[in-house]
Design a protein that fits this description.
Structural class: alpha+beta
Strand content: 15-25%
Shape: elongated
CATH superfamily of one domain: Histidine kinase-like ATPase, C-terminal domain
Helix content: 40-55%
Low-confidence stretches: 1-7, 731-735
Radius of gyration: 61 Å
Distance between the termini: 84 Å
CATH class of one domain: Alpha Beta
Mean pLDDT: 80
């Protein structure tokens, strides 16, 4: 038979299965509505932008048509008046006053005429406020123009300035006369103090009754007034409107930046692509690149360009008049101006979408929870029963199918509990017996191991004590022999040297053979070094005798029974034996021993066993300090030297207290709490058995009826305090 290979299928939680499809439907519907709303909003924005820019461009063109037609109308009126003889060009005073009156009626910056004779007269507002009359009788430079201040009737009051003027060199005069018809001459600029003057001049030739050229009449408009008009447009609050010539020279703009710059007190007009306003500059550059110059723009263009990374709606419209002006009107509006409401609506749509998703998720969650909660309870109860907890009861549900399932489960659980109860009763009794026997065996084994370790340690220390005592005894005899004879050897040597000195004094005659031998053996050095050698030998034998005495005191083989001893003598003997570990090493300085001994009486104790406790505590302290020094540099070890402090004192006149403290790293609480446990050690395998402190604790507490306490904290070192009674009771005088 063929066996089917079952492929595991990934399972999903029931709540996910119930919630996710519902949420996806809501998200899809709301997202689609939001997307369509956004696209419709964008379409409406494009239409609104087109309408706004069309309206703005029309408003600007209407203003240009009306404002720029005024100079030519005034010129026609003045030319007709001169042609009809109503104005006498020879009476410059009357004509000047007439022009002054016209300036009161029209929004112009200058009205005047220039004659073929080089004479002329005009009235103007150069600073936009003060009305003056200029009069020049001829073209004889310099200072041929007199500028008069006027009163409220237009009468000349005083000369306020003199100027140089030659009709035949000024475009204001030359271009209209050459054209023979009304035209606009080139835009020119003058820089009056704090009042820049940039004007477009409309000129018209004038003739006498015989159709002979008399000269020309002109009227100027101040182009900066066009910028003021553009700034008053509603669109200028968010967008930009600017006017430029076909050459790209800027005429007016709605920006706060002026369409000119001052260079050494002279006005220089700017090209639109050189404007200090970044929007005007960017739009002009892009238009010039797109159309390969501005002359190719012959009809209105609607574009979308970016300025400073922001999309802008741009509308470019040519404007012309019959007198030769050919300008471009550019309207630019940022997309964000129109998209603000669209973005707000989009944000609202997103919030509503999220709200709908949240509501749908919550509804799905509570619905799924209502359905899955009974199933989850049943699942948990089944898992608990599979783990061995048979005391399970499932609550009934409001759903009919789940309610039937709950009753069936409860019945099955009851049957299983009854079956397992009988089995547990028989099993429990057997387990109690096994546990009791196991605990008894563990206790016996632990006591046996402890006793065995203590016996081994005691035998080891006893054998070591016998060995040390035997070695000390064997060394003591030859050392005493050498030490005793060194005194006689020193005396004999001194006598021989005295004999040599006396011989040298009595027989001072020169003997070559004796002198040669003295030089060969270096007699003077030999005498001096021999005395030093004898002194060093005496010191060496003295130190060997002290070491032998310390070994005998430490082993105390002759004092194995309970007796009164000097505690300080045992401490010093132990320190002498450990001296090789206290000396300085290449990687650290010597461990400093600080002694703070009190005045102690003779203490009744087991001297050898008490020395064993001192040896264990001091050896552990040295191990702890070596561990600290191994983790530091030589400089750090020199800055923080290792120290062991030993303090002795009498407590309550009944006890002797020995405190041994080190400045190592200390121990954490979990180590300190087990320091006296048998077989517990923090040292590596082979470095310690864990019985040293346990045996020390037993020696102090059981053998001497004293106390052994440990005080330690991380970073604060460790201190052991030994307390033993000065006199022991008779009941413990036997081992």
């Amino acid at each position: 038979m063929k066996q089917r290979i079952s492929v595991p299928i990934k399972a999903f939680p029931l709540q996910i299965v119930l919630i996710v499809p519902f949420v996806l439907q809501i998200f899809g519907a709301v997202g689609l509505v939001g997307y369509l709303s956004f696209k419709n909003g964008q379409k409406a924005v494009n239409q609104l932008a087109d309408q706004l820019m069309d309206k703005t461009s029309s408003t600007v063109e209407q203003h240009l048509n009306s404002y720029l037609s005024i100079p030519h109308k005034v010129n026609q009126i003045n030319a007709d008046a001169i042609g009809l003889g109503l104005l006498d060009v020879g009476d410059r005073k009357t004509v000047g006053k007439y022009f002054w009156k016209q300036m009161q009626a029209y929004d112009l910056s200058y009205i005047g005429f220039g004659l073929a004779t080089g004479a002329g007269v005009g009235a103007g507002r150069y600073d936009g406020k003060t009305l003056v009359i200029d009069d020049w009788p001829n073209a004889n430079l310099p200072k041929n123009v007199l500028s008069y201040a006027t009163d409220t009737e237009g009468n000349r009051t005083r000369v306020i300035d003199t100027l140089d003027w030659d009709n035949f060199k000024e475009p204001w005069y030359i271009e209209p006369v050459k054209a023979g018809r009304p035209i606009w001459s080139r835009i020119y600029s003058l820089n009056y103090p704090n009042h820049p003057y940039i004007a477009a001049s409309a000129g018209r030739p004038i003739y006498d009754a015989q159709n002979r050229l008399l000269g020309m009449v002109a009227a100027d408009i101040h182009l900066l007034k066009l910028s003021e008009f553009l700034r008053r447009l509603d669109i200028s609050r968010t967008g930009q409107v600017f006017i430029m010539e076909r050459s790209g020279m800027l005429i007016a703009n709605s920006s706060t930046q002026q369409p000119f710059k001052l260079v050494k007190d002279e006005i220089q007009r700017l090209k639109a692509r050189e404007s200090p306003d970044p929007v005007v500059q960017s739009i002009a550059q892009q238009l010039e690149q797109k159309f390969n110059g501005f002359k190719s723009i012959t009809e209105p263009k609607k574009l979308q360009l970016k300025s400073q990374g922001e999309p802008n709606f741009v509308y470019v419209s040519p404007w012309r008049d019959q007198y030769g002006l050919d300008w471009l009107v550019v309207v630019s509006v940022p997309e964000r101006t129109f998209m603000a409401q669209i973005n707000a609506n989009t944000s609202t749509t997103i919030v509503l979408c999220l709200g709908a998703l949240t509501v749908a998720t919550l509804m799905g969650y509570f619905t799924s929870r209502w359905i899955t909660h009974p199933i989850v309870r049943l699942n948990r109860a089944s898992q608990a029963m599979a783990s061995g907890n048979l005391d399970q009861v499932v609550d009934v549900s409001n759903i009919q199918e789940l309610d039937t399932l709950a009753h069936s489960f409860n019945y099955m659980a009851g049957q299983l509990r009854e079956s397992f109860t009988a089995l547990e009763n028989s099993k429990e009794e057997l387990e109690h017996r096994v546990e009791a026997r196991t605990a008894e065996l563990k206790s016996t084994l632990s006591e046996l191991q402890r006793t065995q370790a203590q016996v081994l340690q005691s035998e080891k220390m006893s054998s070591l004590g016998q060995l040390v005592a035997g070695v000390a005894h064997e060394i003591n005899n030859p050392v005493n022999f050498i030490h005793g004879n060194i005194t006689h050897l020193n005396q004999y040597t001194q006598d021989l040297l005295q004999m040599i000195y006396l011989y040298q004094q009595r027989h001072s005659s020169y003997d070559p053979e004796i002198q040669a031998l003295a030089d060969e053996i270096d007699l003077e050095f030999l005498i001096e070094d021999l005395q030093k050698m004898l002194s060093s030998m005496k010191m060496g034998t003295e130190r060997i005798r002290n070491i032998v005495l310390s070994l005998r005191n430490f082993s105390r083989m002759d004092e194995a029974e309970f007796k009164a001893v000097d505690i300080h003598e045992g401490i010093e003997s132990t320190l002498l034996i450990l001296q090789y570990r206290l000396k300085d090493k290449p990687d650290r300085p010597a461990i400093e021993i600080i002694r703070d001994y009190g005045k102690l009486p003779q203490v009744e104790c087991y001297p050898g066993q008490l020395n064993q406790v001192l040896m264990n505590i001091l050896a552990n302290a040295i191990d702890a300090l070596d561990e600290v020094n191994a983790g530091r540099t030589c400089e750090e070890n020199k800055e923080n030297p290792s120290q062991i402090t030993i303090c002795t004192s009498v407590s309550n006149s009944q006890w002797v207290e020995i405190a041994i403290a080190d400045n190592g790293l200390g121990m954490p609480e979990q180590v300190k709490s087990r320091i006296f446990d048998p077989f517990f050690t923090t040292k590596p395998v082979g470095k310690g058995t864990g019985m040293g402190m346990a045996i020390s604790y037993q020696i102090i507490t059981e053998k001497h009826r004293g106390k052994l306490e440990c005080f330690s904290a991380l970073g604060k070192g460790t201190e052991f305090i030994i307390q033993v009674p000065i006199k022991q009771q008779s009941c413990i005088l036997t081992v």
